[in-house]
Amino acid sequence: MLPAFVPAAAQGVRYTISPKNAETVLHTERIRATVEQLCDPAMGGRAFGTEGGQKTAAWLEDQFMDLHLEPLGGAWLHGFRWDGLFGRNVLGLIPGTAERYVVVMAHYDNLGTLGGSFYPGADSNASGVATLLELARMFFHMKECKKTYGAGIIFAALDGKEKDLAGASDLWRLIEQGRLKDPVRGEAVRPDRILMAVNLDQLGSSLAPLTKGQPNYIMMLSEETTGRRSTLERVNRDQNIGLELGFDYYGSKDFTKLFYRRVSDQRVFLEHEIPSVMFTSGITMNNNKVADTPETLDYVLMRRRIQLIFYWLDKIL
Known about the structure:
Layout: H1 28-38, H2 51-66, E1 70-71, E2 77-82, E3 85-94, E4 101-107, E5 112-114, E6 117-119, H3 122-144, E7 152-158, H4 166-176, E8 194-200, E9 217-222, H5 229-238, E10 244-246, H6 253-261, H7 266-270, E11 276-280, H8 299-316
Helix pairs in contact: 1-3, 1-8, 3-8, 5-8
């Protein structure tokens, strides 16, 4: 008679769930399709307070629902007024095992249509939003594989970056006022429980490399003591991703300060003393021009950048 089968778990065997599993759901074709969708003329260039911005927010809400992200404060879509216009943030959560959170955000608004000219905003910032959605997909797949993390991840597609960081400011307002309830824990997300804010802003181009002739690169701007830079270096090496890493803005202290502390969404969190990181591939000659089209981006390189950010997040959660 054959011995009865006893599941490995019942025998006390422990398994390590490898983050490599997440790479099975990361596809270059879908990254490109997301960028193309966001840059479609039907989205009107995604300007704040426009019909195109509203359509984009509704589309992103559908993506968050499809990715099974938990709604915060009872909804994925959070509207707000700014300078007489109506904006919309899209927020979703993958819960952690403790009452701690990392905010991963990317602004989806762009310049829109100005003077009859359509600004598609592929790198700025359809690339960041595509990265956000793929990271959400990868972490949800890890959840399906029964992987747990100590901290929850709040995914935030933000409106109003081009309106003095209006979306990031409203997100912080909701956190500060206790308006975002964790639907799993039943408690409001509190400011003192935010471990870090991670901003994804322009991640699709290879046109402004750190070193001439070496297009495989990424920049991570952060405080030296809180950005977990050594973790990024380690996963870049250990996972054989092989990107050139920059921890300032092309060696310039002034431009590093400008892009890290003033002109993108992490500024709002820095002003409230939340450790913050910005991932970017830098400004190119196409940014804020009609030439910022999906055809100008490098999607194979984007996939490698997303891999790197995923593995870094996997280590710090």
